[in-house]
Design goal:
Blueprint: H1 12-39, H2 44-69, E1 72-74, H3 81-94, E2 100-104, E3 111-114, E4 122-126, H4 127-132, H5 135-150, H6 153-184, H7 190-231, H8 234-248, H9 253-259, H10 286-303
Parallel strand pairs: 2-4
Antiparallel strand pairs: 1-2, 3-4
Subcellular location: Cell membrane
Membrane topology: Multi-pass membrane protein
Keywords: Cell membrane, Hydrolase, Membrane, Metal-binding, Metalloprotease, Protease, Transmembrane, Transmembrane helix, Zinc
């Protein structure tokens, strides 16, 4: 993770944050599993198998599940010539392997990247994005998404988000096991299990949520920077950001609510109105992203 692949600029700040996040997520993982084993020592083989199985499933299939859930459909150059053409130009410019190219039939203007590595990565744009943006704006968005793959932060976010899923699932398993044990033997300590496991799981979930949100906000700024420097047109990316964010208010609330669970993957978050979710957004404020792109534009202007 030390450097980005191809000509995307490396980001030491992103690399260090990914390392720290994975280390802290690992500690939380040990605390959660250790608490489960301590409270349910007789069932430790089942806990190990369940945790291992969930981790493998999350790591290997989460990108496909996310792509399927967001309606991504792989398209050929004949089906989407403009989208493939933009990806081809960017991959040649960045000197990176071409990912799978997909399109989602959604009026929500957005794009996302998935994949554990560059070999199995996918870049997807919605029909709403392609319809609303100019070609140079589309390239700015796709350059942003390709930088996520080049910096490998897509894979890190996939692994990091696993802990929150695990905490929720194992809490239900522990509660079910505790209730069953309580019915058979009141002296089994099921009451303690029912108290301790949910509390530990809730704490782990909150901490993992905050860690992934902090990483997610920084990685979006990093992708904006890397994408703008690669194309040399930060103004096009800024224009795309402004258009996409402005158009969200015109999208039906029903469509935005369907998209909200996948905000961490998106180029710009989809919010169905002013909700508490905006306080814990996976993306930095629009103003901060535009300010960074403005500074990059000034720097590039001085270099010419």
């Amino acid at each position: 993770m030390a450097a980005a692949r191809g000509r995307y600029v490396a980001d030491r700040g992103l690399t260090s944050r990914m390392v720290v996040t994975m280390f802290l997520i690992g500690l939380l993982y040990v605390v959660l599993v250790g608490s489960l084993i301590a409270a349910m020592s007789n069932a430790w083989p089942l806990i190990v198998i369940a945790v291992g199985g969930l981790f493998v499933a999350q790591f290997w299939f989460s990108d496909r599940i996310a792509a399927f859930s967001m309606g991504a459909r792989e398209v050929t150059p004949e089906q989407a010539p403009e989208l493939h053409g933009a990806v081809d130009r960017l991959c040649a410019l960045a000197d990176v392997p071409k990912p799978k190219v997909a399109m989602a039939d959604s009026d929500v203007p957005n794009a996302f990247a998935t994949g554990r590595s560059q070999r199995n990565s996918m870049v997807c744009a919605t029909t709403g994005l392609m319809r609303r943006l100019e070609p140079e704006e589309v390239e700015g968005v796709l350059s942003h998404e390709l930088s996520h793959v080049a910096h490998r932060d897509v894979a890190v976010m996939t692994i990091a988000s696993f802990l929150g899923v695990l905490a929720g699932v194992l809490t239900r398993v522990a509660l079910w096991g505790g209730l069953s044990g309580a019915g058979r033997n009141d002296q089994s300590g099921a009451g303690i299990i029912l108290l301790v496991i949910p509390l530990v799981s809730i704490l782990v979930y909150i901490l993992s949520f905050l860690l992934t949100r902090l990483l997610s906000r920084y990685r979006e700024l990093s992708a904006d920077r890397a994408g703008a420097l690669l194309t040399g047109r930060p103004s096009a990316l800024a224009s795309a950001l402004t258009k996409v964010t402005g158009q969200m208010a015109r999208i039906p609330t029903r469509d935005l609510r369907k998209a909200e669970p996948f905000n961490a993957f998106f180029f710009a978050p989809a919010f169905s109105g002013e909700t508490v979710a905006t306080l814990f957004s996976s993306h930095p404020p629009l103003e901060r992203r535009l300010e960074q792109l403005s500074r990059i534009s000034q720097q590039l202007g001085r270099q010419q």
